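Narrative summary of target 7.
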Amino acid sequence: MAAIAYVDPGNVAANLTSGSLYGYRLVWVLVLANVIAVLVQYLSAKTGLVTGHSLPELLGQRMNRPGRLAFFAQAELVAIATDLAEVIGGAIALQILFHVPLLLGGCIIGAVSILLLALQSWRGQRTFEFVVMGLLLVITIGFVAGLFVEQVDWLAAAEGVIPTFDGRQSVLLAASMLGATVMPHAIYVHSALVNDRHENSKTHLPQLLRATRWEVLASMVVAGSVNIAMLLLAASSLQGVGGTDSIEGAHAAIEANLGPVIGVMFGIGLLASGLASTSVGSYAGMAIIQGLLHTKVPMLLQRIVTLVPALIILGIGVNPTWALVLSQVLLSLGIPFALVPLVSLSSNKDVMGEYANSLRTRIVAWGSVAMIVALNLVLVVLTIQGEPV
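Modeled conformation, tokenized:
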């Protein structure tokens, strides 16, 4: 379920835009982001398994009321940015597949996501997990299919692993790709998910941690492969093609260059991505509220709070693809607020006991945090300078 956060519509927008504008140049961002994601998601899962509490709960136990409210405010902004990406992406998919107006499509995506969350309440988490896993399979097939009919320049793709930028917009896209890959709400939700699934399993903790490491690695490899496949597809078939800086334009170009079957599969993958990720994102929002505010908010109210801004964006006619990309930049700015407490708590022996992070893990984890913060600072400086996009 956490892997869904790594293949949401925000990823689609960021990866297709990057590939169509810069070819294979930013492959390295996805590779680096997915390596960081493996570490981050394992630390989140480990924290939940060892402590029996989600990350928001642990923070809520250690903060005073003003601190909890301030932290909740930024986390809720991140949740809104997350839902913006999921709902807009799903609406674009409905428009591509069935010519549904964007605003109506957003309402449909929001309604279906509520039904999926209701399924989790009625049938339990395991049923919800299997539904989301099925959607992940659809996403993988939908976004990877194009590589089987398009020849990728693998030498250029290998060169793209070397870190480089090409002006301010490439930095903007890199931050967007990072925010779309290492997503704050996935950090929060993973600790809650494993806590629910492995409740009262302390006697089997070493085995669970070992199994979780492999589970995280496998799921992140799948999600990372889908992300890289999207960028490679855009770089090989969409670079230099006019109008491909939008998802709709990219779909039209894919359909023209690779055929209508691949175009439909792309649309289905995008739709599955929007539905699955908005449901998981709403689940994360509930975990954040319960942990930080020490209260339960009705699912429908939480869903409305995060859904309305996305519907407003669709209603006023903002370019949906760039709204997606910029939402991922906001997510990138929110990553340190989730990562710093995660690394700090998972390294604390008072919290984790013998399972606290080793010195090597702490060095790598804090280095990852520093790298993300540095990229965000560069982005802010370039934005303040006001260079044209």
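The chain has one domain: 2-385.
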